[in-house]
């Protein structure tokens, strides 16, 4: 004998299904910055900036699937890039991607070429510097790889990037008054 699900049963089944797939929903985003890729495993990283030869350019359209503090970014060629967000939540995902399309020529101004080359220059805004080199490993002397939101990084006056193991780090300092890059150290000139 078959038993029919009433309207309440159908609604309950639909809600269970939605909650089961909600953490894995795929959405379209754009890379907020030049995302560094480790050659082995296509993993997006925030370490070893200048020893990582390839990156996903700022403004690249990506399909994003999030599962707690992990995500997968898929480009238009179907290549998947796993990433550790550092913590669970939208504010941590925003370190990597944004819902808004980014026009580097417009936002970058005279620094658009430097942003595309992934180089930070004196005079850049925080946003331009972030687009060029993405997440620093340290902000204001503290490790920023976990539980640090995008807005916290942009508010810091000192960013430090790892370059290579046992090599000099890359330092970026912002003028607190103007918010512009006032000094760089360890940048490889191109």
How would you summarize the topology of this molecule?
Blueprint: H1 7-22, E1 26-31, E2 35-37, E3 44-45, E4 54-56, E5 61-67, E6 70-74, E7 80-84, H2 90-93, E8 97-98, H3 104-108, H4 112-117, H5 126-133, E9 138-139, E10 142-143, H6 150-155, E11 158-161, E12 170-174, E13 181-185
Antiparallel strand pairs: 1-5, 1-8, 2-3, 2-4, 5-6, 6-7, 9-10, 9-11, 11-12, 12-13
Could you please describe the fold and organization of this structure?
With 190 residues, the chain is α+β, with helices and mostly antiparallel strands. The chain has one domain. Helix content is 24%, strand content 27%. It has six helices and 13 strands. It is globular and about 40 Å long. It starts with 6 loop residues before the first helix and ends in a 5-residue tail after the last strand.
